[in-house]
Amino acid sequence: MKLFLTLLIPAVVGGGVYYYNYTNGPEPITTVHTGALPPQTALAPTPRQSFTPTTRKGYWNPDVVGDFTLPATKSLTFSGAGRNLHVDQDWSKLFRRGFSSIDKTRMSNDEFRSDWNPKPDGWTSRLKPSQRALTIGQGYMAEEPFNISWSRSGDKGPETWYVRPWGDKGFKNSVSWAMLELSGGCVNFGDCPPDKRKSTYGKIFFDIENEGLNNPLNRQEQVNLYAFMMKSIREWISPYTEVGSIAPVPLNGYGYSRARDYSASPDWLWAMPVKHTASSRQRGMPDALVGKTYADFIDFQMPGTYFLYPEFDYSINHNEDGSRHWLGALLGEQEVNMRLSPKKRIAWQWLFNTQSSAFPNSEKAKNAAPPAIAEGVAVFYWFTGAYGALFWDDMVDLKSDQPSPAEAHLREIGNDRVYACYEHYIHGLWRLFKHHGDLFNGREKYLNEQTECSVDGGKTWYKYNANQLKTHNVPFVRAIVNGNQILVAATQPYGKTGQHKQVMLRYIEDGYQFYSTINLKGDEIYLGRATMQKTAGARKKA
Fold first, then answer.
1. Are 336 and 16 in contact (CB under 8 A)?
2. Taking the domain 56-446, which CATH number applies?
3. What residue spans define the domains of the chain?
4. How would you classify the pairing of strands 526-531 and 485-491?
5. pTM score, two decimals?
């Protein structure tokens, strides 16, 4: 038997306790039970809402469930498709379907002011700051008036201005000026502070995607510019505005959940400290930035990858270390990154396959997430202790019930797609937060890899990370504990219709000795809750 050391370290991050599992090898934690099992307590299954998923193209129905809201400790931004279908009938509908903010690109004309969308004097947006989000793509800095080519190519770092002197020709051609002009965000909503302009968005997401370099000698400039960009924007945002970026993250798994990820070190762009280069001081980089990192200036990290078609394919194997697996990737990305950084996490989520010619059926985004995957994303993700998500789509407005276009390259995209996956996603949110939102109050404990299960009737027990669950082909189970309440999500990913699987769960800690059996059907997303009873003789674990 190969010996290994396990160290369980609890961490408190922004409300809620998360257990990190560090091992010096890939072996899972297993224990053998001897003697009779204690009495079991049945979990009360969470209700499901019966609805008929839409078959209409370019349409989805937010009323497959009733009203519910996200807990104040969580955040979900709508940057998806088709708000235009519903906003005229009820502008607040999505805020009562689990979303807490709307991206600027999805706002209606009634909700913001611009040069082409003027408003009368004294007008103020109906959207509260917490309901506003802004995504900044590479075009913002790359195009007029800034013309910062670094925004499209990280290798342009050595020629990029941090701060350009006012009297210098083209002084706006600097990162500092591009960040300064974001202070005008308050003008969009008619609520600029009296002293000076500040952005009044609740969240700002950067989507520059220039982190890859052809020349590794440019790494230091890249680190310097990313840190400077985030430091600079903090001067022009309101105290409540949160800032983060799709990249860098401590570790990008690119949709895989490999064993080696759990012993990886943070990415260089995330962790490397700022220091001057031969010309950085001349281009305006301040000395005070030296020694800082990009991570020092952000409020949240954004680990999370879009699915490719293989994750939606039930006919192939998903259980090898290098296999793509929808739930292994969803959980693994979070487990790894929470270990590498205590920053709050917000993932980008998309319910269609991203495009990649390297994978069959992925040449265009035509495949919607199957029902259990769409619902499961909306449930399991929050069991990692994540702070929020950004729900995205490559489409903005939808026009329903259009005939399929004659051009082959336009078929099965945009208005030609069926968006029933949105309905399954909202159904998952409704099941979790409508019925269990009280558990997400900042005092909850996320077990993550410390969720203890058995598939042999309680003879042996294991605690597996997402990769180990995948490679052992056992049900995925995750639990949250808050006081005497335990909430459990479970599924057998890619399970076939009519297939039944049984898994046991136990929680032996804090004076509780809780055991329960979960019966799974197919790949259905199970959600259940129970009240645990204190046991005088319960074994207490460190």
1. no
2. 3.20.20
3. 56-446
4. antiparallel
5. 0.93
